[in-house]
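Sample entry (638 residues):
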Amino acid sequence: MTIFDDKLSTLGLTVRLGANGPLEAMTSALLAGTGRPAVAIGSGGSAIMAEFFARCRTTLGHGVTIVQTPMEFVVSQDDWSDFDIWLFSAGADNPDIAGAFTAALGSAAKTVRLLTVNSQGATSLAAVGYDRAQVIVVPVAERKDGFLATHSLVAMVTCVLAACELLTRSFGKSDLIARYAVEVEAIVTSEAPLCSIFRAGDTVVVLHDPQCRTIATLIETSLWETGIAPIQKVDFRNFAHGRHVWAARYPDSMYVIAVTTAMSREIWQSIRAALPTSVRASEVDLGHAGRFRTAISVAQGLATVRALGRATGTDPGKPGRGEFAEAIYGDQGLARLADRLDPAVRHKLDAVHFHDDPTCPTMGAVLARNQWLGIVSEARIGGLVLDYDGTVVTTEARLGPPADEVVAELTRLADSGIVIGFATGRGGSAGEALRKALPERLHPSVTVGYYNGGHIRPLSIDIEQDQPEANPDLASAATWIEDQALLRPGVKLKRGKVQVTINHSDVLSPATFCASLATFPAVASGRIRPVSSHHSFDLLPAKTTKTSVSNWIRATVAADAQILAIGDSGEPGGNDAELLANAPSVSVDGVCGHLGGSWSLFGRSASGPTALLRILRALRVENGHARLDLASVGESSA
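Predicted structure, serialized as tokens:
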């Protein structure tokens, strides 16, 4: 008897143990995720479990389930907000599942759940310390699987199957698990006659109904992992699109395993009739591919692997592996990558992918972030230039006063010798708000660049009494915009002397507005340039820039001092893009798509005044210069 034979012979014991497993926890977890999308993550044998879990959620009508490997999940830039993340791992102790767990916790997922047979696995133990995380440990008759997942896989399948039965049964006691045990035992104690026509050296093609991915994945994974046969799995119709060429060239050495359902039998029969007669084929039919039949198919798949292993003289429980195997399996690369892909790096990569700037360097994002952090942390800061809306105050509450905590930190820095400036897209209303918030003694020393830097004055001056000269192109642009019917009915633009502001909410179609605006002569010729904040479009004279405020302040600080810029609209076209383009700078929201440009410290985990306050509190002042203490702000330059 082979090791694999021995493991399969006792699978019924594991199924029967499952009747007394953590069914309440699993049932509650499934029920809590009703209507929410989920991601099911597993590799190797656990990838089979991820497919079974997805099938169960589908048949329950609980919502979309995306199946991914740990690496697919770690490198994904998708937004997992309000998703349930499910991790499947027998031992919960391999570095890939650890990396996936790290990435899941770093996402905005609703919950992170781990299904395992090992409560002492590294990831199981790590999950205990997090409120969003839950570990569900299932009982197993034999803790060690051998090379392929057997008892651990069936244990997890049994737990989910039993929980689904509890969710769908109205009254009475179910004998489903007992029946499952009986059928599993019958399958693993009998031969697999359908595999008798397989020959060593065959190429195996698993043609399957997409509803049967569980058994298809099991056979494909197991045959590759054990080296029993080269194999491809593909659904019936995808096979029809060119993958049948192999059958034309090598019909005598091709073995097909067709996995059908009531829906797809005829589709398979048409393919079977068309294939060369020398292509050998076996069939497995899962009926309607419900949860129970899909669970049964796990045992059928294991029995198939056993039969094909016998034909090649391979023990799937101990197929033999190369000396290099442990170096590959145990490599910590994905876990390290997950640690490095913190919210700030993922935030930046979102922008890199979205804007797809061809001039963006191909260096790693983590290295680029560390270089930027090094500049920021080593800067001797003598001045501070802040955007206002979205940075000092939230965009939603921009007409209200800054938070007292922000004002206190700005006052502390100013009293310590740090020169404070503001670069705002607003006019006099920003100055009025700041004069009310900041101590009057600071007003003469605080600089404000109104209209995106188009009119720079000390805070002590009310610009209602000190207006800039009007730019004639801006008035013409405002009239043209109104005449083009680009705005909602009844909207009239306020014509500022050095800026025209158009609220996003007043534009009928942002895309049409931007495309049409580009054709206006003063914009097309470059005399006027449009920029955007999170609530408005601003039209400015070409030379107007928020960096003028930084240049203004730089003349008042020591020659070796640097100006730290902080804003929220660093994306291309944003009204802080130039201000934040070069370090030392920090965005508290949008960043550009260039690794050498603007960066955030927190990604989407903190933004606006909340992020600003953390930054201000981390500025340590000594001898008239400040340094940003990354350790206290929640970042590290390592």
